[in-house]
Amino acid sequence: MNIKRNIIKAFMGGIAACLCMACGGNDSKDYWGDTSGGEDEEPTENPNASKPRYIWIDAAANFPDFANSKENIARDLALAKDAGFTDIVVDVRPTTGDVLFKTNLVDQVKFMYAWIGSNYTKVERTATWDYLQAFVDEARKQDLRIHAAINTFVGGNQIDGGTGLLYRDQSKAEWATQMNMQVGITSVMNTSESTKFFNPAHPEVQTFLCDLLKDLASYDLDGIFLDRGRFLNLQADFSDESRKQFENYMGGIKIPNYPDDILAPGASSLPATYPKYLTKWLEFRAKVIYDFMQKARTAVKGVKPGIKFGVYVGGWYSTYYDVGVNWAASTYDTSRYYNWATSKYKNYGYAACMDQILIGAYASPLKVHGTTEWTMEGFCSLAKDKIKGECPIVAGGPDVGNWDTNNQATQEQENQAIIQSVKACMNVCDGYFLFDMIHLKKADQWQYAKEGIKLAIE
Fold first, then answer.
1. What is the pLDDT of residues 24-46, one digit of tens each?
2. pTM, full prediction
3. What is the DSSP secondary-structure string of 163-179?
4. How far is the C-alpha of 152 from the C-alpha of 210, rounded, in Å?
């Protein structure tokens, strides 16, 4: 069979050579294609094989295991490695705003609350060793890449009667975001919001966070991710500082009815009829976050140019305006698709500022495949489309613990969803991202992540 095929191929090749000469061409391209049936070809590597697989390690949820035990850190990083993850993302600034790395700018985390069994329990940290450094040391031993993540625009949490900078230091009261409530503009400290956000537009807040990032960048890290690099929600921030900056942005126009000309008091979603300045306000908020991300990147790169700078964002772009973030490419014209976007909204797409973006593809376990938002595959493919190659790594994946709040899927369906999610997400973007390690541990689901990764990369 092979001899006959070679004779035919030689004959056909001769004809091709004659045609090339007749046309005056000098290249040796085989116009007849490969007639070997592929038997002589080298196996082609699965393009997914070289893509990163990230696993997030939430500070609070994993605190009972890791706060005081380097042995537990080593144990669970080994499990992540064995499952096929290549990158770990360690949360070192939970929503209290205190930290788990060395800095003189804010207090160390002394305790956190976490679920232990069915009890929400206070867990104290008595160890004095450097929490982040312990992860760095172990990741290097196990040949895992390591990234640190911070909750960015947060300054406190109402837990335990109030914890964090905004509760401790009254001189920072102006840093707290101001909410547009039914009763009037109100400090977030006087609302029921559990996480106390800063005002992202406040210059002192931005300087504080950039300084914090410089301290973080001094560690031997592969990357830094900014989580909650955003406004709290659509009701934030309506402070005098934001009003002043917005009016300057508008060319000095004084808004006669503030905040009604932007958003009615108490409104938490877009109204059917937009107030006069609403869409320009959304544009302004996207600019605030865009400008901050440029500063934050500069701060990190100024310390370690080789550290990858990135963000974690939700994949639900169609409604992400509510937190003031445009994570798309600046060439993605948002106004063509959404009536809440102005023609200038696209100018504040920050994808090009990022080395890597993690997309929360937080769909139901019954919605792995698809082409729309609220399917895992759809979230990832749409993100790639919107980012348009301006960020080199776009990795997405599920929240495997909080994805079935109505308990619609069986345990076996959830297990299978983990397996399927890996390939579904990796096939349409540049990597896989799973939130969170605690869920794999509590439900003993490492084997399903491992099976999914194997199927996706082999």
1. 333 333 433 444 444 556 778 89
2. 0.90
3. BSHHHH-GGGGGGB-EE
4. 10
